[in-house]
Amino acid sequence: GETLLDTAATLNAMHCDLLAVRHDQSGAPNLLAQKVDAAVINAGDGTHEHPTQALLDALTIRRHKGRLEGLTVAICGDILHSRVARSNIHLLTTMGSRVRVVGPPTLMPAEVARLGVEVFHDMEAGLAETDIVIMLRLQRERMGGQGGRGGLVPSAREYFRFYGLDAEKLAHTRPDSLVMHPGPMNRGVEIDSAVADDPARSVIREQVEMGVAVRMAVLDTLSRVNRPVQ
Q1: DSSP collapsed to 3 states, 89-147
Q2: What is the pLDDT of residues 47-82, one digit of tens each?
Q3: How far apart are CA 186 and CA 191, in angstroms?
Q4: Most CB within 10 Å of its CB: which of 21, 84, 102, 148?
Q5: Closest Cα partner for 201 from 117, 116, 135?
Q6: pTM of the predicted model, to two decimals?
Q7: What is the rounded CA–CA span in Å between residue 81 and residue 138?
Q8: For the chain, where are the alpha helices, taking DSSP H only?
């Protein structure tokens, strides 16, 4: 029940140098950054952004493809509730990637095309000749309604039929395309186990590894602000 401003006052009293914040309200880390003396790292705020996830995704892609510019990236699934999608859209379009968002109309933000992406509601069309496929889980906790779906999606089986990534749908991408997922995965809902575990195409576990490296780099970079010069 404590207000965010009281939380900020408490954190200031602790004299911390770095503050990593995950919050269910969009904009909370930005507000804290204005009120605390520490460097603030956004570890995910509501349905707004997840910057370090986008950084680790970009690093994973570049390690395999050597570049970001000119690649076609499809972000598929629950775009409406995904902070990962928003951060990836901002980063990848800035770095010259061509970004597509693929999902049912009920899970697509209004006017999402204004973010500089192409919008598809058909998986086969959206995946055609793509270099990277980023799958997203259904964020049922944000949907409300019966079974956490709120009428936005049909049954899990029907959703997988149309929007779940399996070998048949993956065949529409480029032969050397990569499969990614920020986790946690819902096997049999948005991704088939055979695809998720494919050693030739899936880099999902490498994303986790790169996440450690990227977050170490963020902590190191921000801590240098208050680090004495040696």
Answers
A1: HHHHHHCCCEEEEECCHHHCCCCHHHHCCEEECCHHHHHCCCCEEEECCCCHHHCCCHH
A2: 999 999 999 999 999 999 999 999 999 999 999 999
A3: 7
A4: 102
A5: 135
A6: 0.92
A7: 8
A8: 4-14, 28-35, 51-65, 83-94, 123-127, 156-163, 167-170, 193-196, 204-223
